[in-house]
Amino acid sequence: MTRTANLRLGALTLLALALLMIWDASHGDLVLARMAGTPMGFPWRENPFLVHVMHEGARNLSWLLVIGLFVAIRWPLGILRKLPTRDRVQLAVTVLASVLAVSAIKHFSDTSCPWDLNEFGGVAHYVSHWSWGVGDGGPGGCFPAGHASAAFAYVGGYFVLRRASARAAFIWLGVAVVAGLVLGFAQQLRGAHYMSHTLWTAWVCWVVGFAIDVAVTRRNQAPLEPAASLHASS
Predict the structure, then answer these.
(1) Which of 190, 212, 50, 207 is nearest to 120 (CA)?
(2) Distance (Å, rounded) from C-alpha 50 to C-alpha 221?
(3) pLDDT, tens digit, for every residue of 96-141?
């Protein structure tokens, strides 16, 4: 059952990748950026609510939740009580690994943020994030959306929670996705990211969670195979 479900999820993951590629090819990033930006910059860039609540507040809350997940390995609450210790470890590690994966990609990115573009008062010119090694004249380090990972990092919890409750897993996934899109939209209003940055962050976090779950599942099942073979031959 798990293998069949993973095959379906793998197909959906590839479909999402194809849709992302289509979005990149559409050049929709600049269209949306121009809706929020002006030649003088982005009017919402220093908005107190977007800066202090949606950016700083959401980031701090996310890190508190990460710490809470690691604490819950020893002292679980709510739905986490239905998970064995190894699943709680997987959940906490998956969230942290997703954040680190997005941060690592950003570190090597040559793509600058929308507010760095010359048409919005900056110094950079637009270059696709697929143009690896090609500088745009700006500071770079803006792809994918690190802030959105404060919520999208939790999507990997779906793979863990589905073992205990399909309903809880879907609710967890839905909350993480909606929160990530909201945070991504807030940053787009400020000129901090393009839509593709947010969508790629979601995809990267999903793939990290998926890959970890497949690896953990295979590791947990591996010791059972020799025993099963021995039993069948006796």
Answers:
(1) 190
(2) 46
(3) 999 999 999 999 999 999 999 999 999 999 888 887 778 889 999 9
**Token pair for 157:** 């919890």
Among candidates 54, 70, 78, which has minimal Cα distance to 171?
A: 78
Q: Is 183 left (phi over 0), alpha (psi -120 to 50) or beta?
A: alpha
Closest CA to 212 of 64, 113, 101, 119: 101
DSSP H helical segments within the chain, as ranges?
A: 2-26, 28-36, 48, 58-71, 85-107, 149-152, 157-161, 166-190, 195-221, 224-233
Please give the angle made by the CA atoms of 183, 140 and 181, to the nearest 5 degrees.
15
Distances (CA, A) of 233 to 154, 190, 222, 224, 230: 44, 66, 18, 15, 5
Q: Write down the pTM of the prediction.
A: 0.91
Q: Is residue 148 within 8 Å of residue 179, measured between CB atoms?
A: no
Residue 6: other Cβ atoms inside 10 A = 16
**Rounded (10°) CA dihedral 145, 146, 149, 151:** -90
Res. 34 pLDDT band, cuts 50 70 90: very high
